[in-house]
Every structure is written in structure tokens, then in C-alpha cells.
Amino acid sequence: MGIKPNLRAFAAIAAAGLALTACGSSNSSNTAGGGSSCGHYNLAFLGATTGDAGALGQNMVGGIKLALDEYNKAHTDCTVGLKVSDSQGDPVKATPLATKIVQDTSIVGLIGPGFSGESLATGKTFYAAGLPSISPSATNATITQSGWTTWHRVIGNDSIQGAADVKYMEDTAGAKKIYLVHDDQDYSVGLAGFVKTALGSSMSGEDAVQQKQTDFGPTVTKVTSASPDAVFYAGYYPEGGLLCKQLRQAGYKGLFMSGDGSEDPAFVSTAGAQAAEGAVLSAPAAPAPADFNAKYKALNGKDSGLYSTQSYDAANIFLAGIEAGKTSHADMNTFIGGYDKTGVSGPIKFDSKGDISAQTIYVYKVTGGKLDTANPTLIK
User: Fold this and answer.
1) Which ranges of the chain would DSSP assign to H, the alpha helix?
2) Which listed residue, 47, 64, 175, 339, has the most CB atoms within 10 A of its CB?
3) DSSP 134
4) Cα 184 to the center of its chain, rounded Å
5) Distance (Å, rounded) from C-alpha 170 to C-alpha 198?
6) Which of 3-7, 146-150, 358-362 has the lowest mean pLDDT?
7) Given this model, what pLDDT does residue 53 score?
8) Domains in the chain with CATH codes
9) Longest dimension (CA), the chain
10) What is the pLDDT of residue 1?
11) DSSP secondary structure string, 179-245?
12) Residues 47 and 108 sit within 8 Å (Cβ to Cβ)
């Protein structure tokens, strides 16, 4: 995915030696405690923790914090810390942050980047430095076609999601005419391309909008004139929610569907409960298991969200590598490449390009004015 969501406050930071500091925004030490044998290792996170994209990034950081909290309690003689770099999901802001991350010799691995645009902007920097990374959420398919052998993701890419979304609209929802709308960001254009390919003759029209656009009048007119059975929006919920709202206000009564960039409760609050009712939002992520959510909430003070489980799993891969003594960049990258276990988000095994082998797509529905995150439908 790419990103977006509304701002939510950070929850309390766990003790147990967890050092969580926004990169460049505090004078506090980022180095984890521990004995001399520890090496003072740190993991890094690069993604949005503030701004429109902040909520999803906070979901990710919450998952990492839980993994670190559990690890540090079991390894009190050698804890691992976390350094957070807030890019606000902006590729331009992410680029200098990436340079700072690779210059920090205490960092053994990166969880992120959180979003597709910043992954494409910084991938060369991390690859050149040999720093292994695992993204919990960046889904643009071209990232793993770039030859960056240190880049991995624990989530399905857009080629899988796009085809699955079309299958749902046509086979499950019975849509014969589908209108495609997308914004201009890397995630959105990538997902839209795969949806368009899968649609073929079912596509009744296409239109492009802009990030941060609020008036979708011209697009609404095009959609209502085409009278489609379904509208698919490739983008993020701030624009997706407003588009859905304005379509309903104009009398559109067909299916509204979007991808993981919109799969957040804030989609409903942006569109309004009445306009959002019946919308379906896909994501290459299953809901968090109940026991995971209970632990997450106890530590973070709120329920887990989209990509919390993937971030938790990504952190645990690095922690397993540290425990196995794979603390050089090269050794850690080799360890990740051979990883083959089941995490809370599902089976994790990487192919030669860094994509996860098992990829599943789920549909989450807006029902009763709320996004039902507990009962998704697996697209088969």
C-alpha cells in the first residue's frame, strides 16, 4: 500500500528496555541497554507516524513495540531498541531519513518503509548500504522487481490484490460494468493498473484524481453518466471516503470498493456512515487473532489495526536473527531469505525477489455504519 489515515496519539511506551524515539526529534538515547555482549543493537522503523498517514504507521509501531516488549522481557541481559523515523509517508521526506538510518551502525535491520512511494524512493539507498529491510505494508509490485536483494515484505503485492478485487466485484457482487478511479501516487497507480488489466471489457470508464483533492464533482459526473454497477477506487481513504460520499449524494447506488489504502475505520468517518454503508474494502491482511489483540491493547492502550500483525511478525524475524547471532547486515539478510515459519499474520517464507510466498486477499464490509474488521471474506 501507500498510506493515509487520521492522526492518533501514541500510546505509552513499554519499559523493559524499549527505547522508542522519533529520529531527529529528541535528544533521548536511542540505544538499548544491556551488557557488553549485546552490542547495543537497534531496529529501525521508517514510515508515517504523524500527518494524514499517521494512524497506519502507528499501527505498525504498536506491533513492533509488542514484539520488542516480549523479547526484551525474555532477554533482560541484552535488550533491543527501536529508532523511529517519521516520514509522514512522503517519499521526499523519507529520502534523507534513509541516509541517516544507514549511517547508524547500531541498526541491524529496518522494518519498513511503510509505504510504496517511499520504498521506491529509498530502496536504492538501503540496498547500497546492505541494510536488510522487511516492509509490513508496501504493496507496489515493482518494488521487488528492482533487484534490491535486501528488500522484503510480509504482505501480498498489488498484482494479487488487483486481480482478487476484480474477481470479487464480478463474481461475488455480480458487477458487469465497473468504473475505475485512482489518484496519482505510486501505490494507487500500481493497484489501478492491475485492476484495469483484470477488468478488460468490464471497465466502463476510468478517471484520475489528485492527492488531497476534496471536490470530486467532475469525476462524479463521469461516473453517474456511465451508470456502472461498481466503482473501484485505487487510493487512500481521505480521498476515497470523500469520493464515496459525493457519489452517494449524486444518487449513485452501486457498489463502492477500494483497496487496503482505504481499509481503515476512518474511511467511514470521512464518507459518513450513511454513504459508506455497504462499501467493501480489500486488504492483503487477515484480522488480528484475539489473543494478539489482547496483548497489543494491554501494551498500547488501543486495539491493533491494519498491519499491526505484519509489523509484529517482521520485528520477530529480526529478533530471531539477533538471537541466532546474525547481527551483520549480510548474515541477517541471509537469515531472512531462509526464514520459513508461521507468524500471527500467517505463513512467512520469501521468494528470491523478497515477496512473501503465501498471499491472500480479504474483503472487509461497512455494516451498520461501521467497518467490520472482525469478519472479513476471503477472496478465493
Assistant:
1) 54-74, 91-103, 116-129, 158-167, 186-199, 217-226, 237-249, 265-271, 273-276, 290-300, 308-323, 329-337
2) 47
3) E
4) 18
5) 10
6) 3-7
7) 77
8) 20-156+288-349 (3.40.50.2300), 158-283+361-378 (3.40.50.2300)
9) 69
10) 61
11) EEEE-SSHHHHHHHHHHHHHHGGGEEEEEE--TT----HHHHHHHHHH--SEEEEES-HHHHHHHHH
12) no
pLDDT digits (tens, 9 = 90+) for 229-279: 999 999 999 999 999 999 999 999 999 999 999 998 899 999 999 999 999
Helix (H), strand (E) at residue 280: strand 280-283
Cell of 159: 498484482
In this structure, how many other beta carbons lie within 10 angstroms of the beta carbon of residue 106?
Answer: 15
What count of other Cβ atoms lies within 10 Å of the Cβ of residue 105?
9
Q: How confident is the model at residue 38 (pLDDT cuts 50, 70, 90)?
A: low
Q: Which amino acid is at 230?
A: A
Alpha-carbon span 328 to 313, nearest angstrom: 20
Residue 17 identity (one-letter amino acid): G
| CB hemisphere CA count around 335 (13 angstroms) | 24
Bridge pairing between strands 42-47 and 81-86: parallel
